[in-house]
Amino acid sequence: MDQQQTAPPPRRVEKKEATRQHLIAATIDCIAASGFADTTLSKVSARAKVSRGLVNFHFDSKEKLLVETLRHLTKEYLDFWRKAVEQPQFTSVQRLRALIEADFHPQVCNRKKIAVWYAFWGEAKSRPIYTQVSAKADIAYAQMLERLCSELVEEGGYEVDPVLAARGLRSLIDGQWLDLLMSPATFNRDDAKRLCLGFAAMLFPQHFEEQPIRRIAAAS
After folding, report:
1. Yes or no: is domain 1-60 CATH 1.10.10?
2. pLDDT > 50? residue 219
3. Sequence spans of domains, the chain
4. pTM for the complete prediction?
5. How far apart are CA 64 and CA 62, in angstroms?
6. What is the CATH number of domain 67-206?
């Protein structure tokens, strides 16, 4: 009874969470625009158009704000690809296609968020907490990719190492993300997906019969 009386009203809790998410979004904008060094609580408050005191109320240090920003990005990415892949009616090949599609969806694969991901990766060596925050999600992704490759190897009787196949595909995806960050003018989502599907077709030709990266000969 006492707990019910002292619990904060639902609307207050929702408002608090909405404010936290607003500040995290502003932090993502700041990091993408200026990098880690120039991201300060004052700049986050200015971008969010709130008082510095409100930022301090929710996050009493820059480091705590950064950690929560990484948690947000990690959860968003994990939830997004899981929702795309974990459809009970999907076959293994459909799951792998869905995973590739999810990796290049604008919601998670856009220049702003990728810039922030790379900023965190660049700081991970000196701040191990960043690796710890994303470790479980990274493992979950790697395990899903290896599982799908293993299932396709078994189904098709391929002489392919599923662990190396998964690692190669992930490296290719990471490379396309970097391409978006470094060369946004020439990056094309459809080409990136075609490249990954082409790699999958070379590994699992019975499942990916099309060769999306082959040049189609011009009609004579």
Report:
1. yes
2. no
3. 1-60, 67-206
4. 0.87
5. 6
6. 1.10.357.10
